[in-house]
Design brief:
The chain contains 8 helices and 7 strands, in the order E-H-H-E-H-H-E-E-H-E-H-E-H-E-H. The protein is of the alpha/beta class. The protein has a single domain, classed as Isochorismatase-like (Rossmann fold, 3-Layer(aba) Sandwich).
């Protein structure tokens, strides 16, 4: 590992991506296979970052009832009446295991206007309108203001949002860590492709040890 890609724990952020009830809970309207099983590892990562006083950004989707902010491949479904991560619903909430306290609730109005909702010391929720956490959001400026140069990614549905977020982070020259056992729907070719662009791929236990240094 060379000096340009080696991740730095002291200037890192944990991104948890789309780990919301509607995508996670068994029987939820948009359940993503494997997400519920990965939550325990995500929880361990979040707890380790909190202990290290390192920042955490919980990235979420919010689909307005009229479908006006929904990606094209899902818009017809929402317009037809499907209630998926709809603002103000329990389905849009972060899974309980990721919350720093049980009373945390998403402030949909603030998130939809682009605010970062603070939910704990060094912990926030942010909204993204498409696959990547960097697309039409303030994330890059938010991280720059905190001197972050290393992004650690985990969460829901690797082929879509985690993978796209990682690639867009790479385009912005972040040092990158991907945690596959804390992410749903990971596949071997995708891991190899990440390694080929300089992403450090490591499990939850190794990432906890690394952030705790």
């Amino acid at each position: 590992m060379d000096e340009y890609i080696e991740p730095r724990p002291g200037s890192s952020v944990l991104l948890t991506i789309d780990t919301q009830n509607d995508f996670t809970l068994p029987g939820a309207p948009a359940e993503i296979e494997g997400t519920a099983q990965a939550v325990s590892q995500m929880k361990r990562l979040a707890e380790a970052f909190r202990s290290a006083d390192a920042p955490i950004v919980n990235v979420v989707r919010l689909y307005k009832e009229d479908g006006s902010n929904v990606d094209q491949c899902r818009r017809a479904t929402i317009e037809a009446g499907a209630e998926i991560v709809q603002p103000g619903t329990d389905g849009a909430e972060l899974v309980e295991e990721l919350k720093p306290s049980a009373d945390v609730r998403i402030d949909s109005e603030a998130l939809l206007r682009g605010d970062f909702q603070e939910i704990g010391s060094q912990e926030w929720i942010m909204y993204k309108p498409r696959w990547s956490a960097f697309y039409r959001t303030g994330l890059e400026d938010f991280l720059a203001a905190r001197s972050v140069d290393t992004v650690v990614a985990c969460g829901c549905n690797f082929p879509n949002c985690p993978r796209t977020t990682i690639y867009e982070a790479s385009e912005r020259d972040y040092r990158l860590v991907f945690v596959p056992d804390a992410t749903s729907r990971v596949y071997e070719r995708g891991i190899r492709e990440l390694e080929n662009i300089g992403v450090t791929v490591q499990g939850t236990a190794d990432t906890i040890e690394w952030i705790s240094e």
